[in-house]
Amino acid sequence: MNSVLLCPPDYFSVLDSKNPYMNAQQGIDFILAQKQWKDLCSIYQTLQQEGHLKEVSVLTPVSGLEDMVFCANQVLPFQNERGVKQLVVSNMKHTSRQREVPYFEQFFRQKGYQIHTLPQEYRFEGMGDMILHKNTFFGGYGYRTNKNAYTYIEKILNHPVILLELVNPYFYHLDTCFLPLHDDTVLIVKEAFTPQDVEKLKTFFTSVIFIPEQEAITCFSLNAHAFTSPLTQQHLAILQKGSTYTKAILQEKSYTIFETDTSEFMKSGGSVFCMKMAYWE
Fold first, then answer.
1. Alpha carbon 201 to chain centroid distance?
2. Closest-CA residue to 223 (of 25, 19, 27)
3. pLDDT digits (tens, 9 = 90+) for 62-71
4. What total number of domains does the chain contain?
5. C-beta separation of 55 from 48 below 8 A
6. If both were cysteines, with which of 19, 76, 117, 277 could 269 make a disulfide (CB 3.0 to 4.6 Å apart)?
7. What is the CATH number of the domain that holds 89?
8. pTM for the whole structure
């Protein structure tokens, strides 16, 4: 994927508790949140200027959609075997987030994506729970996405999905506990998965590295955006400051690292990966 979509936090707030991180009583520092988002946006814009990304797009935020800043969940972009750009539209679990989806669908319609929808009984939360790595789709389920949704999604993709059950409420999306790297290495929080699925991952990756659960909870270290630019082939990673253990591994794997602070957004249960949607322009 060569481009990134972001959405400013103009209406960002914590109003309820959709995951263990959210507490409406702790409050959001809105000025700090704006700064942190602009810092993240600046990193992506720099990557574009340096030729690592083709496009950095910014979606107009909508009043009343306080979680719209978390762009990874509303849709799943993919390309079929002929390179045609496709999109699976999410069926979000929470009503407040369901209202975000049409704005993302419209963005991708304008980009020429072919749109696929799911029956309403299937819950599915886009790139938050489904991650593509080297032509293999990994799908998390248990908290936000239904396991049986993948039966339908596999038909749309014409491709199997490797299912991973999420069993720890602190890792309610796959993108909080599963970070594949360029050399067939994956970083995971083993406490987020069943022992059987940890063993399953060892059949798909030559190296499965366990990240300390506490670092993944306090720093959202596996919610980093680690990718290889399809334009320059450089390995790049953007992650939350303080992710000491994860940062060291990324450095060993030859990633150029950009640290940033997303602490205000972590109060709502998300960090870098949650705050962007990667796609093909």
1. 19
2. 19
3. 999 999 999 9
4. 1
5. yes
6. 19
7. 3.75.10.10
8. 0.94
